[in-house]
Each structure stands twice: as structure tokens, then as C-alpha cells.
Amino acid sequence: MKILKLSEIRIRDPFFLRVNKTYYLYGTTDYNTWEGKGTGFDFYKSEDLIHFTGPYEAFRPPVDFWADINFWAPEVWKYKNAFYMIASFKKEGRCRGVQILTCPSPEGPFLPLTEEAVTPDSWECLDGTLVFEADKVYLVFCHEWLQTGDGEICAVELTGDLRYRAGEPFVLFRGSDAAWTVEHEEFGHKGYVTDGPFVMYDKTKSLHMFWSSYGEKGYAIGISHARGGLTGRWEHEEKPVLDQEGGHGMVFEAINREKYLAIHGPNEWLKERVQLILLEKLLP
To answer: Per residue in 182-235, pLDDT tens?
Structure first.
């Protein structure tokens, strides 16, 4: 298997999972992520975050899989005794949805946990992530701006086996709630984008969320803070933490205990590469 440097891997929406001393890198890996039939998701492996092997196949859709386009933004979480992939999918004539897949191994092959997306059938949804709070598991996801005009970041409690919604989705905040966002026009629509939420706890167990939208200089990443937990009030920094060419951030801890924000940049088709930024440089 070919050995690659991180700068040689073209990938969108990067997500790192560390299992013991091995880093797994997942992401949107189809050649054309917007048009054409979806192929699946690949992953790469590394022991040092410098040299990677791959690509390896993480997911290929079964013949009866409900979606066939826009295979986006896979995240992989270890939960109980298995690994779960949270990813976005779409089919012409059906709303984009967040599907949960599972496998005993982080290397796949991942298979659908259920036959349907876990997000509402009539909502255009994407970019799901998991949050664990007070013995509950929540799916945090985006209700897409193309449908709502003002994109929403929502949450819904899941059943303990992650198969179904355990309640009704609720809005955490909207794209226009942050002072740094601007209206974006694309695909014949104009509105406030919400993309790529990722929720993390700090040392005091407070919740913070990185998320993407458009600011004055382009595609950017902001951070918001929960007051009273996930279901409480959210406050937003006045300026983005990265004001341009940074998309879909997530945080992971390296073997040496340093924490990194992983993003893709630039946000331009075929030029996307993983960028790793020490978290302490953004959040002193």
C-alpha cells in the first residue's frame, strides 16, 4: 500500500479517530462530491500524523441502499462495543438525510444500522455529529439553509442503540444568530449557511461548538458556547476563529495529549487538503 504525506491526500470534511496508537482519517472522498453517483467512503491510517497508508474502503453502499448521490462528511465514533459512522446521503426526489452505519472494527466495512436516515424525511439535513450528555446520546445536525433560508443547527435525542429518534428535533441556533455570518448566494438560493457542527467539552466540562458558514472573507469557521448544556442557551463569538478558506472543523487529541482542530482547506474542488491547527493557538 502506498505511503502518503498528509498534504498529498485530497479529502473534504476530515475526521480523525484515534484507536490506541493508530490514527484513522475519514472524510468525503468521492471524486465529484456534488454530481454523479456516490461511490462510498475511504479512509487512511497513520501512526505519526505525518505518513499515511491508504486509501482503504470504509463503506460501499449495498445494492438496496436508499441513497445514491452526495455521500458526505462521515464521522466515526466508538460507542459501547462497536464503531458507528454518521454520514450524509441523498437521492434525487428525496431529502438529504443523516444515516448511521456500524461495524465492529474502525476499518469497516460499515453497514447501515437501519434502512432509513435518522433525520426527518421531509427535512434537508446534513453533517451529523454525536454528543454525549447526562447519560443521553444526541445527534447534532444541520437543517440545510437551502430549505430553511436561515440554516439551523439542530439536535435530537437518540435511542440508546442509536437506531431511532427518541424525541423531536429542536433548534440550537440559526446561522444569522452569529454576528460574523453573511448571506451566501448559490444554487439559485440566498441565505445563511450552517455546516459542519462539532461539539467538544473543555476541562471544566463546558460545551463549545465549531461550525462553518460564510463570513466577510469567505468560507469560515466560528465557535459558539453553550450556557447550561446542549439544550441551554448558545452564545457566539463576534468573529470567526478562522475567517477564510477553512471548512468543517473537528477536534481530536493526539497521543502526546495535544489537541488539534482539523479542517479542509482551501474550500475548492480538487484542491482540498487536511489542515491541522493546534487548538491552543485558537483558544488560549
So the answer is: 999 988 899 999 999 999 998 888 999 999 999 999 999 999 999 999 999 999
CB-based contacts of 51, cutoff 8 Å, min separation 6: 3, 4, 5
Its pTM surpasses 0.90:
yes
111-148 pLDDT, tens digit per residue, is 999 999 999 999 999 999 999 998 999 999 999 999 99
